[in-house]
Amino acid sequence: MAAVAGLLVSCASWPDEKRPRLRNETSYPEAGSGRLVEGKRFVCGRLSVADSAGSSLSYIKITRAAGSPIKAKCPEGVPVGSLIDPEATYQVELLTRIYRDPDYVFDDVLRVSDERGRVIVDAAVCRLHGPGMTRQVEEGVSAEDYPESFDRRREREFPNDGKVYLACGSGIRHMTWKCPECDSRYHARAKKLGVEE
């Protein structure tokens, strides 16, 4: 459900804008969107907390010296707003996803570094189990298979299991992080609940 809100809030159609140039561009045909590519790009600027329009997700606005501001989704569970100085300039490494059919551009914060090069936010590090996460298309599972208490346990014990818990249907799938320890804990919990995988 948060992913749907993120889709509505963070998308920007790009046919009228210049398509961002990406490094390490990777294609993900399994995302179910016609075509999805994701890559990295660096931008510098001042950061501020951006309005999330009723979403539970958090965003930052990157105001650059030249070019229009960029709105990017912050890593879940990381209080980016409390870590930044709105008067300082930061280097932000973005994971930029470009969906085709329809055409949308999404930016996620990968890393934020201060003027001295010190990393203050790193989305590739699991906040519970440390580094070693991989990037993947989220794996859809049925939310109906899990009790209400499951969400709270997941948040505490395995927030980066690489899954999206769907109430119904399918559609565009998003990119997410997968921590091997979170994945292992998810499978142990699913087994205890009798969920068939």
What does this structure look like?
With 197 residues, the protein is of the alpha+beta class. The chain folds into 2 domains: 121 residues, OB fold (Dihydrolipoamide Acetyltransferase, E2P); 60 residues, no CATH class. Helices cover 18% and strands 37% of the residues. The protein contains 4 helices and 11 strands; from the N terminus they run αββββαβββββαββα. The strands form 3 sheets. Strands 1, 2, 3, 4, 5, 6 and 7 form a 7-stranded antiparallel β-sheet that branches. Strand 9, helix 3 and strand 10 form a beta-alpha-beta unit. It is globular, with a radius of gyration of 17 Å. The N terminus is likely disordered.
Secondary-structure-based class equals alpha+beta
Rounded average pLDDT: 82
Q: What is the number of domains?
A: 2
Low-confidence stretches: 1-17
Spatial separation of the terminal alpha carbons: 22 Å
Q: What is the CATH class designation of the largest domain?
A: Mainly Beta
What share of residues is helical? 10-25%
Order of helices and strands: HEEEEHEEEEEHEEH
Strand content: 35-45%
Largest sheet: 7 strands, antiparallel
Number of strands: 11
The global form is globular
CATH fold-level assignment of the largest domain: OB fold (Dihydrolipoamide Acetyltransferase, E2P)
* Overall CATH architecture of the largest domain: Beta Barrel
Q: What's the total helix number?
A: 4
Cα Rg: 17 Å
Outline:
This protein has helices spanning 2-10, 80-83, 149-157, 180-193, and strands at 23-27, 35-50, 59-63, 70-73, 89-100, 104-113, 119-122, 134-137, 139-142, 163-166, 175-178. It has 197 residues and is α+β, with helices and mostly antiparallel strands. The protein has two domains: 2-122, OB fold (Dihydrolipoamide Acetyltransferase, E2P) (Beta Barrel), CATH 2.40.50; 134-193, no CATH class.
